[in-house]
Amino acid sequence: MVDEFFISLAIKKAWEYQFLTYPNPAVGAVVVKDGKILSILAHHGAGKPHAEVEALKEAYYKLTNDKTILKLKSSNKIHEFLYKNHNNIFNTSTIYVTLEPCNHYGKTPPCSLLVEKLKLKKVVIATLDLNSEASGGVDRLKKANINVKVGVLEKEAKELLYPFTKWQKDKFIFFKMAQSLNGEITGGYISCDESLDFVHELRDKIDLIIIGGNSVRVDRPTLDTRRLKNSTKNPDILIYSRDKNFDKSIPLFNIPNRKVFIEDNLNEINNYKFIMIEGGYEMLKATKNIIDWHLIFIAPKIFSNTNLNKPIPLIELNYLHTIKSGVDLKIFAKIK
Amino acid sequence: MVDEFFISLAIKKAWEYQFLTYPNPAVGAVVVKDGKILSILAHHGAGKPHAEVEALKEAYYKLTNDKTILKLKSSNKIHEFLYKNHNNIFNTSTIYVTLEPCNHYGKTPPCSLLVEKLKLKKVVIATLDLNSEASGGVDRLKKANINVKVGVLEKEAKELLYPFTKWQKDKFIFFKMAQSLNGEITGGYISCDESLDFVHELRDKIDLIIIGGNSVRVDRPTLDTRRLKNSTKNPDILIYSRDKNFDKSIPLFNIPNRKVFIEDNLNEINNYKFIMIEGGYEMLKATKNIIDWHLIFIAPKIFSNTNLNKPIPLIELNYLHTIKSGVDLKIFAKIK
C-alpha cells in the first residue's frame, strides 16, 4: 500500500505533462528516503532531463542543501555531478518511477546507469518499457543487486503511457473539445490563460491539426503557437471540407513553414504521428473511428445552449484523468 | 512547502466525506513521523471518531503493529487505549489537521486533549475554528508546550469548511445536477452505483429536498435512502409547484416519517439546515439566489441533447473540488 501511494504521486505528477513530452513518454518519479518524500517530479519534455534525473537532482539538494546542483539544467551535467558527488547518500533511498528506467545511451547516459551508480537501495517501477530501444533497465538494476519491484499500479501507468506506445508504433490522435459546463461549444469555451497556454503548448508538439471547413470559415483561426516565447514550430493543418474554396486571408494560411491541406478525406493522417482534431459534434461524428483519446476543457459556466439540436452519435467514454487548468477543468478520456 | 504538501493530502481526504459529516465539519488529518507519513484519514460522519482520532489510531498501529487498536471503533475507547499505551511513541511526530482540534467535552473527550496527552511534537492546522463551541484547541496545545503552526493552505481549508460554517449559523443549500458530458440532463444522468450510493448517503444527511412539480409528475421519484442498509431517515420534500394537484400514488408521498410540502414559494427553507435542490435549468433559474454550492455529476457520455433550447440564466462558477465517483465525475462548485 505504501508503494502504491508513492507510485500514485508519480503518476499524478506525470499527467501534468501528458502530451507535452512528445515524442517521449510522460513519466513521473518520486524519491523516498526512510519513508520521507524527497522529491516528486516528472519529465517536462523532449530534450529535458528524464523524470528520474529531475527527481534525483531535487533529492540530492534536499539531502545536502548544496545549491550547486540546482543550477545544472542539462541531463549530462546532472549525471556527471551526481556520479562525482553522491557519496552514497542514496543508499537507503527508493526511487518510484512510472516507467522502467531507460537503458540506452542516447543524448544522455541511461537512467538505469544513474540509479546503479548512485547505489539506490530499491527501485519500484509501475510498468515496463516493452517496446522501445530504451528497455532493459530492470536487468541492469538487478545485476547491480538493487532491489527491483515491478507492476505497482500497472494499469494506471499503462494508461498514462498509452499515447507513447501508440505514437511509437503508429500514430496517436486526440479530439480536443472546449465547452461550458452545460455543453455549449460555440466560441470554443476556454476561460483562462492557463488553458490557452496549454493549447499553444500542444500545438508546439503535435504534427497536424484537423479542423472542419465551417470552423475555419466562421472562426478564421490562426492555429499557431504565438503565446509561447520560444516556439518556432506551427503544426500543419488538414481542413476537412468538401468545398475547397477558402478565403486565403484567413490567418492559418499565412503561417511560415506550414503545410495546409484541404481534403474531403482523412488519408493525410498516415503521414503524421501526433494529431489533434478540433471541432464540434459534426467533426466528432466524422472522425470518431480514428480517435484514440478525448481532451475536454470544461469552463465553469452555465448559460443558454442552443447549438445542440442536431443528432449526436452516442459516445461512451472512460475518464482517465482530470486536472484543474486555471479556472477550467481539463479531462483526459478515452472511448469505452 | 512540506507542510503545504501534508495539509493538501489532509484536505483532499476530507473532501471524500464532504456533506456526509453533517452536522459536523469535513475534516482530514495526516500523521507524520520524521517526515514519514503514518496515516491520512478523515472524519467519516457524525457519531464516528474525529479525523485526529482516526489518524492517530492508524498511526499507532503503523508504529507498534499492535492490532488491538484496530478493533476499537468508538472514539472513547480509542482515546482510553491511546492514553494508556502510547509510551511516548509520538514525541517526534507531527499531526496535520485541516481544522483546529476540538476542545470541548461532548460525547467524547476533546481532540486537543488527546494530542496533548500523546505528546506530539508539532501540530499544523490549516484553519481555526472561530465560530464553534469546540474552539480553543490551539490555546490548550500551546499551554502544553506543543509547537503549533496555523494558517497553512488556509483558503483551501476554509472552502472545505464552508458548509459547516454556513449550517452552523444559518443553513446550507446545494443544487444537485446530473448530466451527460455534453449537458443532457433529462433522465438524471448518473452512470454508476458509486454515484447513486453517494446520492442516497446525501439523502440520509439532508433535512429537505426541493424538487419541481414537473420532475415529480414525470419521474415519479421515491427520493428515499433504500440503497443504504442502516438508514431510517428520509428527508422531507418541498415540491415547488403552482399546481398543487399530484397523484398521491407517486412513491415519494408514501415514505414513513416524511413531511411533504407542496408550495409555490420557498419559505419552508427557513425551517431546515441542510437542503438539497434537485432539478434542471428551470429549477436552477427559480432558486439560483438561494444556492450556496453546486454539486454536479458528469457521466462519461456524449449523445443527442435536445432539451436545452430554453434560455438559461448565465451562471458563472468556481470549481472547488473534483473527485472521480465510479465512472462519473463529481464536481463541487460555487457561484463566482
Tell me about this structure.
The structure is a homodimer of 336-residue chains. The first copy, chain A, has 336 residues and is α/β, with parallel strands linked by helices. Chain A folds into two domains: 164 residues, Cytidine Deaminase, domain 2 (3-Layer(aba) Sandwich), CATH 3.40.140; 166 residues, Dihydrofolate Reductase, subunit A (3-Layer(aba) Sandwich), CATH 3.40.430. The first copy, chain A, is 29% helix and 26% strand. Chain A contains nine helices and 14 strands. In chain A, strands 9-8-7-10-6-11-14-13 form an eight-stranded mixed beta sheet. In chain A, a hairpin with a 2-residue loop joins strand 1 and strand 2. The longest helix of chain A is centred in the middle third of the chain and has 16 residues. The model of chain A has no long low-confidence stretch (mean pLDDT 93). Chains A and B meet through strand 12, strand 13 and strand 14 of A and strand 12, strand 13 and strand 14 of B. Strand 13 of chain A pairs antiparallel with strand 12 of chain B, so a sheet runs across the interface.
Provide a count of the helices of chain A: 9
The CATH homologous superfamily of the largest domain in chain A is termed Dihydrofolate Reductase, subunit A
For the biggest β-sheet of chain A, the strand order reads: 9-8-7-10-6-11-14-13
Major beta-sheet overview of chain A: 8 strands, mixed
Please indicate the count of domains of chain A.
Answer: 2
What is the topological layout?
Two copies of one chain form a homodimer.
Chain A: H1 2-15, E1 28-33, E2 36-42, H2 51-64, H3 75-85, E3 93-99, H4 111-117, E4 122-127, H5 137-143, E5 147-150, H6 154-169, E6 172-180, H7 193-205, E7 208-212, H8 213-219, E8 236-240, E9 260-263, E10 274-278, H9 281-287, E11 293-299, E12 301-302, E13 315-325, E14 328-335
Parallel strand pairs in A: 3-4, 4-5, 6-10, 6-11, 7-8, 7-10, 8-9
Antiparallel strand pairs in A: 1-2, 1-3, 11-14, 13-14
